[in-house]
């Protein structure tokens, strides 16, 4: 498939010392869903803002449809932003309370001159609302009159209004009740199938990732430590941190339950990133080499990359299981 998005060795340093994103590289193909996962503070939301150019990278290159947008002017970015849209985590704060639902979902069209008059804008709004299971009569409703799931539907269809080729979805279902998450996920998948849009899907919910993703990228402390096709990743992660993330996912059957891996301590500060492998301070299988040499992403399987000195040496789950368990539960909220 053609590469739609290419991110190459991108870094973002805040205040001269906080390495929020520290050399991230990946690509995204047309119609593909790449899930970016990790603990809070790992840098995944910063990556999304760099791609959208809501913040400027310190180093590296971002290409969209082959065009370098890394340092593109705000004026030139207006055309790019028709093709890259965003779905926010909080469906309430992302909607203007002073605008009706009809105004919200057609605002991108109005900004880019795609609707000519008030009648056309209303008609388009009704069509958009119906596309995500809302009623045409909701055109005049205010955000406060909708449930959380309905508000997120507004956010989704607003993102799709311009027919973008890429949508960055930052925790799009984490603020929703479990009962409506599946509805919103189904809408995202249906819209992708109909429109052919690619997703960068940012999440800490591994069950949702398993349902949505084609590939999975795991971030830890500003870096991608594992990148793999979904089936390969869920069948056998090759980085201890990725294994710990998966161990927290509830099993569909008692016989398939993974051994829960509890990591000691909290992630180090991005101001004081440890030498060697940045995960070694919490890793239950760390050796001397991990403290002195930083592993690079290496091919460990079919399109499966991992940054671990001992990837594929022997099953990570069994290595961890033989060791004394740590005492602090991994937090991925």
TrEMBL record:
Belongs to the ABC transporter superfamily. GO terms for cellular component: plasma membrane. GO terms for molecular function: ATP binding; ATP hydrolysis activity. Keywords: ATP-binding, Nucleotide-binding, Transport. Residues 5-246 form the ABC transporter domain. It is found in: Cell inner membrane. GO terms for biological process: peptide transport; transmembrane transport. InterPro entries: AAA+_ATPase (IPR003593), ABC_transp_ATP-bind (IPR050319), ABC_transporter-like_ATP-bd (IPR003439), ABC_transporter-like_CS (IPR017871), Oligopep_ABC_C (IPR013563), P-loop_NTPase (IPR027417). It comes from the Bacteria. This is Peptide ABC transporter substrate-binding protein. The keyword rRNA-binding does not apply. Pfam families: ABC_tran, oligo_HPY.
């Amino acid at each position: 498939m053609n590469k739609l998005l290419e991110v190459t060795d991108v870094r973002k340093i805040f205040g001269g010392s906080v390495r929020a994103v520290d050399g991230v590289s990946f690509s995204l193909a047309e119609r593909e869903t790449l899930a970016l996962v990790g603990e809070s503070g790992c840098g995944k939301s910063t990556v999304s803002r760099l791609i959208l150019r809501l913040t400027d990278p310190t180093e590296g290159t971002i290409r969209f449809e082959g065009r370098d947008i890394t340092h593109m002017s705000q004026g030139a970015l207006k055309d790019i932003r028709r093709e890259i849209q965003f779905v926010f985590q909080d469906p309430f704060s992302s909607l203007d309370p002073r605008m009706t639902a009809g105004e919200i979902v057609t605002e991108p069209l109005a900004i880019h001159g795609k609707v000519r008059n008030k009648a056309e804008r209303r008609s388009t709004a009704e069509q958009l609302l119906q596309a995500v299971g809302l009623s045409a009569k909701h055109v005049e409703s205010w955000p406060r009159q909708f449930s959380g799931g309905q508000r997120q539907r507004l956010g989704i269809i607003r993102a799709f209004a311009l027919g973008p080729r890429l949508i960055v979805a930052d925790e799009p279902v984490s603020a929703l009740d479990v009962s409506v998450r599946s509805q919103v996920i189904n809408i995202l998948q249906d819209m992708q199938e109909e429109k052919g849009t690619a997703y960068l899907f940012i999440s800490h919910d591994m069950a949702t990732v398993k349902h949505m993703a084609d590939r999975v990228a795991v971030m830890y402390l500003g870096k991608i430590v594992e990148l793999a096709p979904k089936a390969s990743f869920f069948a056998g992660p090759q980085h201890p941190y990725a294994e710990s993330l998966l161990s927290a996912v509830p099993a569909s059957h008692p016989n398939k339950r993974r051994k829960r891996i509890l990591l000691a301590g909290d992630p180090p500060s991005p101001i004081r990133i440890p030498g060697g492998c940045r995960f070694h301070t919490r890793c239950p299988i760390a050796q001397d080499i991990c403290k002195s040499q930083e592993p690079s992403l290496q091919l460990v399987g079919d399109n499966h990359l991992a940054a671990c000195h001992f990837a594929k040496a022997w099953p990570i789950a069994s290595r961890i299981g033989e060791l004394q368990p740590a005492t602090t539960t991994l937090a991925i909220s």
